[in-house]
Amino acid sequence: MNDFQPMTVSEEATADRPWLASLVGTNDTNTILLDTTKFTAGVHYEAGTLLQPRNVIKSGIPLGRVTASGLYAPYAGPTSEVQTVTVTGTPTGGTYTLTFSGQTTAGIAYNASAAQVKTALEALSNIAPGDVTVTGGPHPGTAMVVAFVGQYLGDDVSQMTASAAGLTGGTSPAVTVATTTAGGAATATDGTEVLHGFLCTESLFTPGSTKTSGALLWFGEVYASLCPVPFDPTDVTSVAPGVNIHYR
Question: Which domain of life is it from (predicted)?
C-alpha cells in the first residue's frame, strides 16, 4: 500500500507544481481526460494570470466519470448542509452563543469574524477541526455561512440554535439561524456520483478549452483531510471496479 501525501517538487520542468507523492513513485495511476467545463473556478482550479495564463486544476480532487462522454469530472458526492447565522438589531457590544446537537459554544463576539465563529464551533465536543467551514461576516453587518463537512458531509444535520441574551446596545439585537441547503445524498445521475479516484497531479488548461489530460490515482492511500475540496470517505458507498483507495 502506498502512502500518498501532497508535496511540491522544485524543478524547472514542473515549475514547482504540487503532486500527491509516494516513496515508491506515482505508477499507480491511469492517464485520463478531464471535462474542464465541469470544474469551478476558485473551488477546483485557480484561474490563470498574466504571467501564467493557463488555469490550474488542483491535485488531490476526487473524481467521477461522466457516463455519456467517458470524461472525468469532480466527484459529485453527498451534499454539504449549509446554514446561515445572522445578527440583527445593530448591537454595539456583548456576545451570543450557538448550540449544535446539545452542545453550546462559548460567547461569540457581536462583531466576530468568520475565523472566530469557526474556532468557537470547533471547540465543541461534537465538532472536530475540519468539520465546518465558515465564510462571510464579519458580524453584525453580514451573515456567516456555515457549511458542515468532514464527518458531517452528506448528513442532514440538526439546525443550530442561537441565543442573543448576551448582546448589548442597538435596537432589540437578535441572532437567527436558517438552513439554506439541507445535507443529503448525492443527487447527480450522470455518473459522477460514483468515485473513480483522485487527480494525482495538478493539471493545466487554457481558458475556453473543454478538455485536458490528467493522472488518475486509483490505488494508494489518501489523507481525506488534506484534499483541496471537502471529502468524507465514510460517505462513499460505491466505487468503480478496480478502485482500491485507502483513506486516512
Answer: Bacteria
The C-alpha atoms of residue 182 and residue 186 are separated, in whole angstroms, by 12
Q: List CB contacts of 217: < 8 A, sequence separation 6 or more.
A: 4, 20, 26, 28, 29, 197, 198, 199, 200, 245
- 89 close to 232: Cβ distance less than 8 angstroms: no
Q: Measuring CA to CA, how many Å separate 106 from each of 32, 86, 122, 176? A: 48, 17, 11, 17
User: What are the backbone dihedrals phi and psi of residue 240, each rounded to the nearest 5 degrees, phi first?
Assistant: -70, 150
pLDDT in tens, 79-128: 889 999 999 999 999 999 999 999 999 999 999 999 999 999 999 999 99
Q: How many CA atoms lie within 13 A of 231 on its CB side?
A: 26
Assess contact for 146 and 84: CB atoms under 8 A.
yes
Amino acid letter, 41 = A
143-147 long-range CB contacts below 8 Å, 24 or more apart?
A: 143/84, 143/85, 143/86, 144/84, 144/85, 144/86, 144/114, 144/117, 145/82, 145/83, 145/84, 145/180, 146/82, 146/83, 146/84, 146/85, 146/117, 146/121, 147/80, 147/81, 147/82, 147/230
Give me 188's grid cell.
447527480
* 191, 198 contact by CB (below 8 A): no
Q: Chain-centre distance of CA 22, in angstroms?
A: 24
| Cα angle for residues 164, 168, 174 (degrees, 5° grid) | 30
* pLDDT, tens digit (0-9, with 9 covering 90-100), for 43-68: 899 998 888 899 999 888 989 999 99
What are φ and ψ of residue 231, in 5° steps?
-155, 125
Cis peptide before 140 (omega within 30 of 0): yes
